[in-house]
C-alpha cells in the first residue's frame, strides 16, 4: 500500500468540472418548485389530486371487500381505471420529485449543514452563511463508505489521515448544543457504528460521566437498527454458562444461561445431573396460544352486551377467523373471550403464531377484526388495542388460569440413591420442605403463580441467552412445583406446571448473532421447516425442563442446609472488578 502511495508523488488534481456551491444549494433550502413555470405548478397539482383521490377510492373499496369477504383480486371497471390512474400519477410524481430525493440520500450535505433541519432558529444560522462558498468535494458527506477519506495534500506527504474526526467533532458539538437530535444519527450518517460512537461521546460530555467500562467495539449495530434497540451507545456483557446435559424427552440439551448470579448455573447443572442419572425428564405441551385483549366502549351497557353475544356466537366465529387470519400466514384465531365492566367490553383474542412469540402478529389480527366490527357496531369506541386482560408483562390470574403462550408440564422421578448421593438430602425432607415452602408459604404470602422456589431465575437466564423478551419473565415464571414420595417412599416424583411460557425462535432478539448461536445450540434456531411452530414449542419444553432442574437442586440445598455455604463459595468475590482494565 505504501509503495502505491509513493508512486503517486504528484498532488491529486481536482476534476475540471469542480465548482463551488452555497449552503442553500447543498441543503436544498432554495426549493426547485420556486423556479417552475405556472403550467408545471398546475400539472403537479392535478397529479397530486389524482394520486390521493385514487388512493382513497381504492382503500375504501378494499375495506368494503374485506368486510364482505370479497376476494381483493376481483375488480370492476372503475377499480381498473383507478389502478391505472394510481400507477400513472405515482410514476409522474416519482419522476418529478424522486430524483432530488435520491440525490439527497446519496449526496448528503456535510455535518455543518445539519443544524438547519429541525428548528427555525437554525435557518438564521444558514442565512449568515449565504456568502460562504464551499468546494463540492467538501460539501458532500462521503463518510458512509468504510474506506478512509484522504486529502490530496496528505497523499503527497505519505501520511493518510481520516477527515471524519473533524466532522464527528462538529456533530458532537451540535448534539451537545441541542441543535442535532441524537436519534437521527443512524439515518443521517448511514453508519450505525459511527452513530453509536458519536452519541456515546456526546453523552459523556453532557453528563460529565465516564463510559469507559461500557464496550463499544465488537458489536454489529446494523443488526439492531429498527428492531431491537434505539440510540445505542454500546452493549452490556453478560456471561453465558452451560447447564447440562439435560435429558428431556429422550434427547440431551446443553442449556445456555446468561446470568451474573453466582451458583445459579452450577445449581441448575447439578439438577440436570440428578435428572440424567434417574433416566431423564418428560415435558408435555398443553396449550399454545398468544393473547391480546383490546378494550372498547359503548354508550350503554346493552350495546356492550350485544357485541359480547355476537362475538361468542359460534356461527360468527368462522367469519371472524377469516378476517383475523389475513394478518399473517401463521396466525390462526383460536377463540375470543369477553368480559364486561359496565359499558366497557374487554375482548381476549387467542391465536397460534407459528415459531414467533407472536405479540405483533396477534395485534395485527385484532386490528383487522376491530375494523371489521365497525360496520355492524359503528358506535363502538376502541379505547386501546391492549386493555390489560391479555395480560402482558404483569402478574395476572387470567394467565395463571387460562394460560398465555405455551402451557407446559414437566416431570421426573428421581431415584432415592441419587437424592442422597448427588443432592445430599432425603426424599422425606424434600417433600416436607416443598409443602411448607412452595405451597403453604406461598399461599400465606398471597402469591400469584409463585408456588415455586426460583423458577424466574432459570427462565430469565435462558430468556436473555436466547433473545427472548426479558420482561415476559413475569408471566412466564408462573410455576407450581409439586413433590411426592413414590415407589413406597424410596423415590421422588417432582413436577413443574408452567401455564404461560412466552417464547419464539424468530423475530426480535433471536436474530442477533449471540442469541442465535444459543438457539442453534439447542437445535431450535429460526423457523421450523417441517412443522411451523415446532421450534418455539420445543424451546418452551426446554425452559420447563431447565426450571425443573433448578427447582430440584435449590430445594435440595435448602433441605440440606447448604444454601448459605454454597453462595458464600460461588457468589462472592474479593476482587474489585471496577478497578480492572
Brief synopsis:
The protein has helices at 2-7, 23-27, 38-67, 77-106, 120-127, 136-139, 152-156, 164-177, 185-189, 192-207, 264-277, 301-312, 314-325, 359-373, 397-402, 416-421, 427-444, 455-466, 473-476, 513-522, 534-560, 563-570, and strands spanning 20-21, 134-135, 240-248, 251-258, 282-292, 295-297, 332-341, 344-352, 381-384, 405-414, 450-451, 479-486, 491-501.
How would you characterize this protein structure?
InterPro entries: HMG_CoA_Rdtase (IPR002202), HMG_CoA_Rdtase_cat_sf (IPR023074), HMG_CoA_Rdtase_CS (IPR023076), HMG_CoA_Rdtase_eu_arc (IPR004554), HMG_CoA_Rdtase_N (IPR023282), HMG_CoA_Rdtase_NAD(P)-bd_sf (IPR009023), HMG_CoA_Rdtase_sub-bd_dom_sf (IPR009029). Pfam families: HMG-CoA_red (PF00368). Its EC number is 1.1.1.34. It is a multi-pass membrane protein. The chain has 22 helices and 13 strands. By secondary structure, the chain is α+β, with helices and mostly antiparallel strands. Helices cover 46% and strands 15% of the residues. It folds into four domains: 50 residues, no CATH class; 59 residues, no CATH class; 214 residues, 3-hydroxy-3-methylglutaryl-coenzyme A Reductase, Chain A, domain 2 (Alpha-Beta Complex); 91 residues, Alpha-Beta Plaits (2-Layer Sandwich).
